[in-house]
């Protein structure tokens, strides 16, 4: 499966066995995306949230 990066418009290869919530990375610009599987098996990508360390706070 393929999707396009929203930043650099590069084609991102999504593995055929990808599961909901899996992270994929654009190899050109490094943007991380979270896989969303829609009804019918089509795949959309949403930009993954950056989670910062809280260092136990």
3D structure, described in words:
The termini are far apart. The protein is globular. It has strands at residues 2-4, 11-13, 23-25, 32-37, 43-47. With 57 residues, it is an all-beta fold. It has one domain (2-47). The chain contains no helices and five strands. A three-stranded antiparallel beta sheet has the order 3-4-5, with no helix packed on it. A hairpin with a 6-residue loop joins β1 (2-4) and β2.
Number of domains: 1
How are strands sequenced across the largest beta sheet? 3-4-5
Q: Give the integer mean of the pLDDT values.
A: 86
Compute the gyration radius: what is it? 13 Å
Low-confidence stretches: none
- CA-to-CA gap between the ends? 40 Å
- What is the makeup of the main sheet? 3 strands, antiparallel
Counting DSSP H or I runs of 4 or more residues, the number of helices is 0
Count all strands and give the number: 5
Strand share of the residues?
35-45%
The shape, in one word, is globular
**Percentage of residues in helical conformation:** under 10%
Order of helices and strands: EEEEE
Structural class call reads mainly beta
